[in-house]
Amino acid sequence: MDIPTAIRELKKLQENSMILECIKSASPDVEYLLDTLREAVFWNKVSNPIETAVNAVIDISWEECNIGHWSSVPETPKTVYAYASFQKVIICLMKAANDVDNRSACLNEAIKAADLGLMLGKGYQRQLTQAASLVTSLISQEYNVTPAPNETSCSREPNESEMNENVFTEKSNAVPIGRLRCPSLEEFNTKHFSSRTPVILTGCINHWPAMTRWNDISYLLNTAGPRTVPIEIGSSYTQKDWGMELSSLQDFINKYILQGQKKVGYLAQHQLFDQIPELRKDIVIPDYCCLTDTDESDCNVNINAWFGPANTLTPLHHDPKHNLLCQVVGTKRILLFSPNDSEFLYPHEETLLNNTAQVDPYHPDIEKFPKFEQAVVYYCNLRPGEMLYIPPKWWHHVVSLNVSFSVSFWWD
Ligand SMILES: O=C(O)CCC(=O)C(=O)O
């Protein structure tokens, strides 16, 4: 596909009813700017004032989105943000078509606008998703995003000491987590789901295309390299040095996966597969996610990506839902503790962190947290092709031993 065809495709996706709804509820200034943009895009007229106008709408609506708590922000600025982001994609493509020297920069600006619209705005999901896919294929068609030949594979085997599971051999109350090969739904239900006991399931995800594709950095770069994703920077979210930044997947891979920065960068707990349907095709929701505690018949599953170098660390915490944590690339060392042992783990008292333990299970300060000695630790190394069932409220602590890509499925 060429750029003019992509522009035509995207213009066809605009839904007039939505645009009018969005314009109607905006402030008069924004309404005027949106109208100007609509005209310019319709007549293929791109100019500096039009670019200024689209950036102004994006800035104004973003500011409005940041007044007060996210949950109390009205719908209008979120929708305007998404709509203006979509217009910006088209405007950037028009610029790319006219300005060959700056084509690469214009295409990158276009894809960034689509991703920010998807992640920070509301509505226009279908249009923005399609826009991002189109621009990604334009970029990979025109520019080589392949890494150097010696840097094409994610896989480095962890060394023997890294693989040593028996970090807790001296502890009498340490239990290795058992493995079960591809159990039937019924067996999984009776032995683990109903009784809420953890287990590693093997042989269930070997057929996923991700199992072969995601080891290949070139595949990830070609499929999603220019896409903007949120990256956690720093040792762990409980530490002061922790922060979050937006980066292209390509920059993240170069800086944190291939070059091995001192600081750890982690693409953690991100709904990557809603954002990038091309990667969603590489995985399959496990049938076990249809078992439910509730009366609702449709299974509503939250899928998150966890992609990072060796030594990413997710501190000891618990979540309210059932979880199947699937290991696609690399190995993770995981510790679990039962909800019955919560008091031995000293949960933080402040509300925001009350699902997170104060105690560090690898270096416990026994004087400060004496009851930790009574906690029973369940441990494993989760290897490629395995998935760990973490029942609701079970505490988990996760460290990657090498470059790792996991997918979690949370459900009720
Ligand atoms: O893999 C990780 O780093 C953490 C995974 C996790 O906390 C989860 O799936 O709930």
Which terms summarize this structure?
single chain, alpha+beta, Jelly Rolls, 9-stranded mixed β-sheet, 5-stranded mixed β-sheet, globular
Please explain how this structure is put together:
38% of the residues lie in helices and 19% in strands. It is α+β, with helices and mostly antiparallel strands and 412 residues long. The protein has 2 domains: 3-142; 160-411, Sandwich (Jelly Rolls). It has a 9-stranded mixed β-sheet. The protein has a 5-stranded mixed β-sheet with strand order 1-11-10-13-8, with no helix packed on it. β2, α9 (185-193) and β3 (199-202) form a beta-alpha-beta unit. α1 runs antiparallel to α7, α3 (28-42) packs across α4 and α5 (75-98) runs parallel beside α7. The model has no long low-confidence stretch (mean pLDDT 90). The structure holds 2-oxoglutaric acid. Residues 306, 312, 314, 319, 323, 325, 332, 396, 398, 406, 408 line the site of 2-oxoglutaric acid.
* Uncertain residue ranges: none
CATH-level-2 architecture of the largest domain: Sandwich
Number of strands: 14
Sheet with the most strands, sense and barrel status: 9 strands, mixed
What letter string, H or E per element, gives the SSE order? HHHHHHHHEEHEHHEEHEHHEEEEEEEE
Q: Please list the strands of the largest sheet in the order they lie side by side.
A: 2-3-12-9-14-7-6-4-5
Number of domains: 2
CATH top level label of the largest domain? Mainly Beta
CATH superfamily of the largest domain: Cupin
Helix content: 25-40%
Q: What is Rg? A: 24 Å
Helix count equals 14
Beta-strand portion reads: 15-25%
The average pLDDT is 90
* Terminal-residue CA separation: 42 Å
CATH topology of the largest domain: Jelly Rolls
Query: Which word captures the global form?
Result: globular
Q: Which ligands does the model contain, each kind named once?
A: 2-oxoglutaric acid
Cofactor: Fe(2+)
GO molecular function: histone H3K36 demethylase activity; metal ion binding; methyltransferase activity
Protein name: Lysine-specific demethylase 8
InterPro entries: Cupin_8, JmjC_dom
